[in-house]
Specification:
The structure is a single chain. With 136 residues, this protein is α/β, with parallel strands linked by helices. The chain is built from 3 helices and 5 strands; from the N terminus they run αβββαβαβ. The chain is elongated and about 95 Å long. The model has no long low-confidence stretch (mean pLDDT 79).
């Protein structure tokens, strides 16, 4: 491989780009990624013990609030009109300050109905609200 050295006839400037530093940097980066990639994906394998599914302990301070697919509200398996729901929840809160409301919304329920029930629960002063879903 012949190397062309600048002389006085060419004007004294080198017109070729020196790619050696670029190749050196790229090789260093490649080595860094090759070394660190296995460390980032390494996981600890843990064999967890198997247990039987158990029912949760019954809680005395729980009320179940459901929204049906037609948008109707049910409080502890009794239909409640939306305009009366806020008062019913306020009564529950007054009788038991530790009350926790579990919200169950039907899969086909319109979001607007669920949002209304959530707003009514918030306005009634319920501070403990949980969503109940099915595990897949």
């Amino acid at each position: 491989m012949a190397m062309h050295l600048p002389n006085e006839d060419d004007g004294g400037e080198l017109s070729e780009i020196n790619v050696t530093p670029l190749v050196d940097v790229m090789l260093v980066l490649l080595i860094v990624f090759i070394v660190t990639a296995p460390l980032m994906t390494q996981a600890v394998t843990v064999k967890l013990p198997k247990t039987e599914q158990t029912e949760p302990a019954p809680d005395q301070h729980v009320a179940i609030l459901s929204v049906t697919s037609s948008g109707e509200a049910r409080l502890n398996d009794q239909f409640v009109a939306l305009d009366l729901l806020e008062n019913e929840l306020k009564d529950l809160q007054a009788r038991d300050p530790e009350i926790s409301v579990q919200l169950q919304a039907d899969r086909a329920a319109v979001f607007e109905a669920v949002a209304k029930v959530l707003a009514l629960a918030q306005r009634s002063g319920i501070s403990k609200l949980t969503f109940v879903t099915l595990a897949q």
